Every structure is written in C-alpha cells, then in structure tokens.
Amino acid sequence: MIPRQNPRQIPDKPHYLAVEVEGLGVTNWRIPSMVKASQILSMLQSTGVLEAAEGAADGNDLVANLGDRLPSLLACQGAMIGLCWYDVGQDLETAASAFSDLSAYGVEVYEELHEEGWQIGQVQAVWIKLTERITASFISQKEVAEKVDFLSVSEGAAI
User: HEC states along 32-65?
Assistant: First the structure.
C-alpha cells in the first residue's frame, strides 16, 4: 500500500460509508457507479456463490459447496474491495486501470491485502458489508429509473 501525502477527506454523500472491522478499526469505502456495480454483481453471480450458499449451514459448508469455484469468489472479493477502496491514509498499489480483466485485478488486490496482513475474516466482513450496500444501491437506482420511465410521456400520448 502507498501512504497518502495528504489524507483524504470523506465526502458527506450516501455512496461513502465507514465499516468497523475487527483488528482494523474504522475503514472507509466508496460505492462505485452503476456501471462498475453491475460488473461486480455480474462477476459475483458467475462465481456460483448464491447457489452454493443455499445449501450451506455455515462458512465451511459454503467453501465445500464452492469447490473449484472458490478462487473465483476470492477474485471477486478482491475486485470489489479494490473498486470500493477509499482509505483516508493509504492507496492501493494495485491500479484497476492496469488490468483489462476484473478477475485478474481482484486477485492482485487480494494478494496486496494478504501482504498487508489482512485476515480472511476481515476481507469477508468488508466484502459482506460492501455487497449489501452495492446491491441496495443498484436496486434503489433501478427503482428510480423505473419510476422515471413510468412517469415519462409515451410516444403518441395526448398532452
């Protein structure tokens, strides 16, 4: 990780959030735009984690159900954390712009977090919170778009 010369200011906007992580304290994050959020959710769906979670009683069952798809889930987690990263005092060394593949980017972010001493439980805690917020953000933006479409004047309608 690269220490920031000047600490970031966290804007008071809905798509910025703070997450308390055991062993790390308060961490700051930025929920990406719908474009990036949809890429992340698509990547998550392709991991098969939702199907694997249906029959899982706990984390051990989930890992067993995922089998050889586990690396894809970890890459997805790394990509999500990387795209949402908004630490006050540090930047990631891994730059998303250096990768054409979101999965490869996620693997490198995960490696960077590992090198910094992040425990798998810390990654999981952040990932779960970010997934909740990204999903909620995506759904609320979709609902707004549907309302706008519903309220718009259709072609041929008399005004």
Answer: CCHHHHHHHHHHHHHHCHHHHHHCCCCHHHHHHH
